[in-house]
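Retro notes, item 3 of 5
We never archived the inputs for the 5-phosphoarabinonic acid complex last cycle. Fixing that now. Sequence and ligand:
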Amino acid sequence: MLSYDYENALKVGEISLEDINKVDFANAYSNLMEKLDNGVVGFRDVIYDENLDKYKSLNGYENVVVIGMGGSILGTMAIYYAISPFNNNAYFIDNSDPEKTLSILKKVDLNESIIYIISKSGNTLETLVNYYLIKKRIEKLNSFKGKLVFITNGGKLKREAEKNNYDIFSIPENVPGRFSVFTAVGLAPLYSLGVDISKILEGAREMDKICQNEDILKNPALLNGVIHYLYDKRGKDISVIMSYVESLKYFGDWYKQLIGESLGKNKHGITPLLSIGAKDQHSLLQLYMDGKKDKIITFMVAKKYRLDEEIEFEDINDEKISCRYSDIIRSQQKATEIALTNNGVPNVRITLDEINEMAMGALLYMYEMQVGFMGELYNINAYNQPAVEEEKKICWRLIKQ
Ligand code: PA5
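Structure as it came back at the time:
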């Protein structure tokens, strides 16, 4: 599924195995396990929910429209774009930008669509307004042959769904939005999009077994968490995901939310950034290598690309070279890794065997566990988002003025 390499995080010489062992990670580990065992937080329990039959009626629509914000949509996008980067019957309305939303609504035939309205609170402004845009269009149709599905626990949207007898799925209360991709929030729309959700859960469960390991060197979530924690303490508080698989771009967006919203509290926090290799070697690499030394890089690579071929070309000295096309991007990644390490920039590497459902389930779950461990290391509540809630309240006030 995936492997994790951390040798370059030690090679640059700023932290050692001894430093790692000095961190009280055993306490972080047992605190998180206690929270998961006692149901204080439920993101582990949901990967063991085997009842996927409940999604069976959600198949067979030409288009899948998903409306939601933040944790209610980013995980779905991360998995969908990784698994099916070249399909285009998916429409994600994840903002209130009129040009984006209205151009999607112009294009999509609602009669041929299953439309998901996803909001745990049921009161998020953007989601509510985007639903009303859809509602207005549906009301104008003579008869609506598509399907509306609500994934919500309450608020205005749940009342709307109940009033109109729409399908409703709920989200376990102890699973916060950004940890909810393995609930109906992610699984229902992914199922409609043809993604094998049982394999996603299988990948997450395999990773869960690995993350139960108390030996930090055998537990990538714990180890990556401690490495990022130690570098943060040394002033390297910007965590860059540099993916050499472009279809992981939306995984990067999900990562930014998970890290930013979970750990950015009480003056703590790591700033997550996303870069795409090899493109960003021609832009941001200058900053990463030669600029302020405040970053730790996570390379994301694939052992096997789903499309590949033999190529032949001539180099600048007219010498013939033949190789696989994927050897080019692999060499670029390796070269960047060596150069960064030589310049004292710590980096780790996650290698996915192939981009598929199992690997994506494992990857997202690994990060959920990592952030859970990191919340314990910083002694903060990784599962709330008071600052986000504060803005939501102010915005409701402004809109009503
Ligand atoms: O992680 C979170 O809790 C947030 O990002 C929410 O997912 C986001 O604000 C949307 O909230 P809701 O699902 O209530 O519409």
